[in-house]
Amino acid sequence: MAGELLTYSGLVTKTRAMRSRLLKQEDFERMTEFQTVPETIGFLREQESYGKIYGGREEIRHRGQVEELIHNSILEDYRKLYLFGNGQQRKAMELYHPQLQYGDSVPRVEVSYFVDVWKQIDKFSGSQMRKVLREVFGTQIDWLNIMWMYRGKQFFRQKPEELAAMLIPVHYKLKKREWERLLETEQAGEFCKVLAQTVYFKGRDALVKLKDEVSYHKVMGNMYQRICQKYPSSMAPVFCYFYEKEQEIEHLTTALEGIRYQVPAREIRKLILNS
Question: CA distances (Å), 35 to each of 38, 180, 265, in order?
Answer without folding.
Answer: 9, 50, 9
